[in-house]
Amino acid sequence: MPYFKFSLLAGLSFSALLAGVAHAGDPAPTTEEAPKEIVITGSGYRIPKDALMSHVDVLTRDQIDKKPAAGLGDMLAYMPGIRSSSFAPGASRPMIRGLDGFRVLVLNNGMGVVDVSALSPDHAVPSSPTEAKRIEVLRGPSALAYGGNAIGGIVNVIDDRIPSVAPEKGYEGTATLQASSVDQGLQGAFDIKAGKGPWIFTFDAFRHKTSDYSIPVPAETLAYTEANDLPADTSDKQHNSFQDMKNLGAGVSYVGDFGYVGLSYKTTDYLYGTAIDSDVSIDLHQTRWDARGAFNVNWAGFNRLDASAGYSDYNHAEIEDGELGTQFLSKGSEFRTALIRDGQGKWSGTVGLSGLQRDFQAIGDEAFVPSTTTKQVGAFAQYRYDDGPWGLEGGARVDDTKLTSAATSYDKDFNTLSASFGGFYRPSDHSFVGLSLTRSERAPSDVELLADGPHDGTGQYIIGDPNFRTEVGYSLELTGHVVVDHDNRFAIDAHVYTSHFDNFIDLRPTGAVADDLPVFQYVQTDADLYGVELEASTKLFTLGSQAIALDVSYDYVHGQSAIGPIIRIPPQALTLKLESKGGKWDSYFEVRGVDARKDDLAAYETATDGYVTANIYTSYKIRTDTSLFAEVRNIGDVEMREATSSTKDAVVDPGRNLRVGVVYNF
Questions:
Q1: Do the beta carbons of residue 350 and residue 43 sit within 8 Å?
Q2: Does residue 456 contact residue 185 with C-beta atoms inside 8 Å?
């Protein structure tokens, strides 16, 4: 889509926001309002989504059940400000506002997943989004309670494996089944929660299996085959893009007037292809134990104590031509405890401690990072004062991170401080404006400090720098929410942000060659990012029992460092969705345009063309507890290559896909 169209939409949308604020004193709606959606990630205390000073989106269980079978990054990629790393279908980590890797924290119930997905884009997150009852996504460094590794944002996958309340009828659960044509895929999931209390038990199982998916054009571009001295690619399949994931989980909790406490176990087995021109696949295994509880207290103004602890044992092996290659192992434990003041007058707050230990080891020819141990202890506090028309929010976190490596005699402590402060104003019950300033500080990772070796997954020889200092980011974000209710409902959510980084860690080519691979070295520089994210919706009309609405979302981000453009910055995107809801039917038609990225490219980065794709979806309730759904994705069989992918010249997104499924709630 041409740039001016996006710019025009952004200008009109923000003008509408300002107009909404100007007319915020208009009469209140006479129709019954929907219940407010509550968000807890980032603070611990509950805040309505339309009263947050940063951009947060939530996927509910109903939405997740009907989403395409996909990795975490791909499932979230249509949200404004969110893209996928898109290395391969099995490896799709979220990218938030142009930042990824160690700057985006993926959590499971507020705890780290203890994997190696941030280490390299070909490494998967060992979790399926389908196991979640909701997914909360926070953009930017607003969630300082989780430390500097949330400097880009947080994705919190929240499951119900440790239940906090008993099911009303003594049991409840969900069973889903879906099939897809583009990859001969089949996915099934089942979960159940049983017990009237005080003991409650849960069990869940998930299986997802696909073959190599069909593509609209050959995966390898002509420039790629010529540069790598390969024959021209003529295949209509994305080579080596299969997936096979199995999850099993169980939990038990004791629920009473005091609160709840429980324990859960989960195991993941995941075999997937890396979708590049070789027979490299990754065989991943993880076992995880978690304990969690919430206790009602009455102490110093706090009314709840939350406590969590977890242990994870993760490993994956790279299999090349049937032979065992490099292995990555990560074992770790983590705890988090917080006193929370929630729903007690005008003040809300949280004060807490957290800690973790992670032991990492790589074995084999691609062991480009030495064995390391990372230990971190942190303390945090965050408070919010809400006086109705106006309010203030602020907090701080301090961390001590110790990283050691016996192999290199590396031993260093990093002390970091993160803090935020902001204020908000409500011109009326249906409008909100907030401004927040955040300082986030991140300790360098073991990879950025100590890497020295070949990594065939990304085709680079990677070198770190043990002399790195902490990375510091300063961010300013303006947030606006407006809802106008007259005959038709109109809502807009707008976010404008800018960030400056000192000691920004970036991976740059040196021009040298080692082990027949180009040498890339981590360097520190200054960097600036800025952008805008818009979401708007309006009810158009009613046709019989169907309410017709239009949803619009748009995002744009720009990133530049002192030594050149930041690599793989996503181009702007616009999504239009026409929805029809009511009675037994729920349908939508969606068009998404992604701009080309041909300018401001980093060294060794290739350009991508823009594209426009369309999807159509419908679901029908055959009973109150059972729904059938069908979807056609990429109706026009359009070629889609993602600018955020390091494999964009060898991996193309799936072609036209028919997906059908059933959801049964009991």
A1: yes
A2: no
